[in-house]
Each structure stands twice: as C-alpha cells, then as structure tokens.
C-alpha cells in the first residue's frame, strides 16, 4: 500500500481513482463500511482506491487546544486500512492555509488535479472546505463538471452500548472515557488499543511481584477511565495476556496518570525503550486505595485471575 504525506508525494501521471475522505480516527465499523465500499467499487472500475485523511486533526488548527483524544495514530490507521484492501493513503498536512480552501478549491486541488477521482464515496455527514461549508450535495453538484461520481453510504447504527446512535468516533471516545471498553470494541470491531514506549516508573509493581510495563502513551491518546482492565500487551508482534492498570496509583498517593500492563505469567521481560501496544478487552474494577499493602496484593492477585478468565473466555468465543 502506498502512503503519501502530502499532495507532492502523489506520483506524476497518477491515473483515475476511487476516493474517500475523512479523519477516519479509529477506523471503526462505520468507517469500515465506507472504506470497504470504496475498495469494492475501485476493483469493479479497475482503478486504485485512495483514502484521504488529515494530520493534525482539523479541529486543532481551526480551534487550537480542542484536539480530540485519538483512537488510533496514523500508522495504525494505515495498517487497518491496508487490511481492508486500500491501495493508497494520503495524509494531508492540515495547516491554517489549507483550512482556508473553499469547498470548490478543495475539490479541484485534491480530488481533480491530483487524485483524478472517478468516484467519491462518503458518509452522509461529510463536510469539507473553509468553515466546513462543503457537503455531499455540493460534492455531487460539481461531479458532472469534473467528471466524477458520488456515492453516499449510510453509517451503521450501534447496539446497546450507544443507545441506537450511528457508529462514530465521538461516541467511541465517550465510551472509552467512561471505561466502557467493551462498548467501544463493539463500535471499533476490535478492542481499543493504546501505544507508546515503555519507560521506567517507580518500579513498585516489580517490588510487589507484579512487574508492569509503564507505557508513555502517544500525544492526545484516548485513554480509558481509571481502573483495572483485562487485555493484551503486544511486543514485537507477540500478544501476551495482561492485567492493565490506568490511574494515578492512589495507594502510593501518586499524581501522574499512567497506563501500566502486567504480562500475566511472563518472567524476566526487559521492555524498557520498546514501542508496545496495549489492547483493552474488558473492565475488571475501579481504581481503589486499600487499607494495607497486603490488601492491595490480594486485590492484584484477584485482578490477574479475573483478567485471565476474561481473556480465555474471549479467545474461546
């Protein structure tokens, strides 16, 4: 799969293509429906499929300080899109200058001149151009002028977790912030993942017999609510069952919020400096301060046991 970091990276002579545009944070099941349709139509038409997305998130440029928590970094999104069969991903640098493009100029500059769109696939709420003035109706109106078609795909509607709302990144972020990682997984189609480099912490877990990987998460990462979770710690492609702690470590009057993962029944792991992924499968309990260290140790052993049971049940399903 091609991955372009700007319009200038698109090869000269690039032919016609089927294009879809959006932030696509999380590549959730609604996104998968749109992207999958773009891939399908591209194959039918005998042309490549291209996903256009933005970095940073447009809201950070238009309203500085409002960058939403991210469900997936760009390299992860590209990986997920490649799995859906996408031929190319174009990550457009979203600058103040770019934000000033009118909807018509956006169409010409991106879709027509560079990607030579034959067909554009979007969801019904797609907006683009200065002040988000462009919509799918306007996109379709200019289609005959520039020789491209437009197909609008309705988004999935979520189940119990979302109360019947359309699948969206906003809803997913809300569920994660509330600790409902199972509800988020229903929308994403997989467990929510947090990534980062393992750094040295206070090493109390090691002293207590439960050595954890202290993950320095990527900027703007969507981190679940404080608590203990079952999931996986993935290192160099190996996914290890894990009990995961999110919070400030109230037992020791901590103030810094951290994500720490204990690889269950793994001994002697040296992960410092490695980039790892933590997948959140299920909520185990809230973050508590115990009466004594002995009480904490009993709870930690129970957390590991419960996490193992949840992971085993998931893997059998």
TrEMBL record:
It catalyses: riboflavin + ATP = FMN + ADP + H(+); FMN + ATP + H(+) = FAD + diphosphate. GO terms for molecular function: FMN adenylyltransferase activity; riboflavin kinase activity. Residues 187-312 form the Riboflavin kinase domain. It holds the Pfam family Flavokinase. Its EC number is 2.7.1.26, 2.7.7.2. It is an enzyme of class 2 (transferase). CDD domains: FAD_synthetase_N (cd02064). It comes from the Bacteria. Pathway: Cofactor biosynthesis; FAD biosynthesis; FAD from FMN: step 1/1; Cofactor biosynthesis; FMN biosynthesis; FMN from riboflavin (ATP route): step 1/1. Transmembrane segments: none annotated. Belongs to the ribF family. This is Riboflavin biosynthesis protein. It comes from Streptomyces atroolivaceus.
């Amino acid at each position: 799969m091609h991955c372009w970091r700007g319009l200038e990276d698109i090869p000269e002579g690039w032919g016609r293509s089927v294009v879809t545009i959006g932030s696509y944070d999380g590549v959730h099941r609604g996104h998968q429906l749109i992207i999958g349709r773009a891939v399908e139509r591209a194959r039918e038409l005998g042309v490549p499929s291209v996903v256009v997305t933005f970095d940073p998130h447009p809201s950070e440029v238009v309203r500085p300080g409002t960058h939403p928590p991210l469900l997936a970094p760009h390299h992860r999104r590209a990986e997920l899109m490649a799995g859906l069969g996408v031929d190319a991903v174009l990550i457009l640098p979203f600058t103040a200058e770019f934000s000033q493009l009118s909807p018509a100029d956006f169409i010409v500059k991106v879709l027509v001149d560079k990607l030579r769109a034959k067909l554009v696939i979007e969801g019904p709420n797609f907006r683009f151009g200065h002040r988000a003035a462009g919509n799918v109706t306007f996109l379709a109106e200019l289609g005959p002028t520039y020789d491209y078609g437009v197909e609008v795909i309705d988004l999935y509607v979520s189940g119990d977790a979302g109360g019947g709302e359309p699948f969206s990144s906003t809803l997913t972020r809300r569920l994660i912030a509330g600790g409902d990682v199972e509800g988020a997984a229903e929308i994403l189609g997989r467990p929510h993942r947090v990534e980062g480099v393992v750094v040295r912490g206070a090493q109390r877990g090691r002293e207590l017999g439960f050595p954890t990987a202290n993950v320095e998460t990527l900027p703007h990462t969507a981190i679940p609510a404080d608590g203990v979770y079952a999931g996986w710690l993935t290192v160099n492609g190996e996914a290890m069952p894990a009990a995961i702690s999110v919070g400030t470590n109230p037992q020791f009057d901590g103030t810094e919020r951290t994500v720490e993962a204990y690889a269950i029944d793994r001994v002697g792991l040296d992960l410092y400096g490695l980039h790892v992924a933590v997948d959140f499968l299920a909520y185990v309990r809230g973050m508590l301060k115990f009466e004594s260290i002995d009480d904490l140790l009993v709870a930690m052993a129970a957390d590991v046991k419960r996490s193992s049971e949840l992971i085993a049940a998931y893997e059998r399903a």
